[in-house]
Amino acid sequence: MFSFRTVMFGVALFSASSFAEQIIRTIGPQTAVDGSHSYYTGLLERVIEVTVDEFGPARLELIPHPGQGRVIRLLAMNLYYDVMWTGTSEQREEQLQAIKVPVFLGGLGIRGLVIHRDRIHEFSPVSNLYHLRQFIACQGEHWPDAVVLEHAGLRVARVGRFDSMLEMVVRQRCDYLPLSIFEGQAELDAVADRFPELVFLDSVLLRYPMAMYFFVHKDNEQLAERLERGMQTLALSGELLIYMQQHPVTKAAFPLKRYREARVFELANPLFKDQEVLSLAEYWLSLD
Q1: Going by DSSP bridges, is the β-strand pair 263-266/198-207 parallel, antiparallel, or unpaired?
Q2: Which domain holds residue 221?
Q3: Among 107, 128, 182, 188, which has the minimal tally of Cβ within 10 Å of its Cβ?
Q4: Phi, psi dihedral angles at 185 (to 5 degrees)
Q5: Number of domains, the chain
C-alpha cells in the first residue's frame, strides 16, 4: 500500500532527475588575450542563474574557437556548439535561432572616431553629415558597418585588417575609423606603443541600430526559450545595464551623460529592420 509520504518521495525523485545538470557548449576565447570573451560568458552564466528555477542547473563548457565562420556552420549543423554570439544579419537569422535581446543594449552602434591627433581641429567644426562626407572612413572589408556608412552617403575605404586601418589613419590615407564607445579607447590603449599618434574623439558620434545576439540551433527550442527568458529578465529589470556599467569591457563608456554635448549623427541601418526589437526602449542605451 502506497502512503502519501511514498508518493511525495517519488515526486521528489522525479523532480530531481528532471533537473539534471545541463551542459551548454559555447565558444572559447579566440586568443590568449581575448578580453571581451569574459563579457559574453559572464552574461551567459547570469542568464543560467536567473532561469535555474524553471529550467534547472546548467554550466558552460568552452570548446576551442576555430573562427567565426566555421562556428556558425557547425552550430547550424548542431555540431560541437550549443550557443554563440555574433552580430545579427538576415543570413544568420535564416541559419540560426537568434535570441533577440541585444547583448550590448545596442551600444555597438554608438561610434566615436579614431583620428590622428594633429587633425582634431578639422573634426571639431563638423556639425552635419554633409561636412562629414568630405572625409574618408576606414572600415573592415566585411564589416556590416561599412554598408551603414555607405548607405548614409559617407565615403568609405574598405580594408582587410584592423592594424592596416590604424596605419591608414596615421598615414592619412583615410581620415577616421569609427569604433564603438566600448571599443575605441580600449583598442588605442592596447596599441599605444605602435600608434601613439591616434586619439579617440567622442565629441562626434555616429549612431545606428546594431545588435549582437546570442544564437542557437534552429531546433534547440528549450535552450532558446531559456536564453530568451533570462535575457529579457536582465534587460527589463535593468540588471543588464548594471552589468555593462561594472564589467571591465564596457564600464569605461559610462556614465553616458558624458556624451550629452556630443554631436550625434543618426544613421539608418539597411541591414537591421526588426521594428519589434527597435520599439523596446529597454533594449537600447539612451544618451539622453
Answers
A1: parallel
A2: 4-105+212-253
A3: 128
A4: -70, -35
A5: 2
AA identity, residue 252 = A
pTM above 0.85, yes or no: no
First and final C-alpha spacing in the chain: 69
169, 116 Cβ separation under 8 angstroms: yes
Q: What angle do CA 82, 84, 89 make, to 5 degrees?
A: 125
Is residue 279 domain-resident? no
Classify residue 189: in a domain, yes or no: yes
Per residue in 183-230, pLDDT tens?
Answer: 888 888 888 999 999 999 999 999 999 999 999 999 999 999 999 999
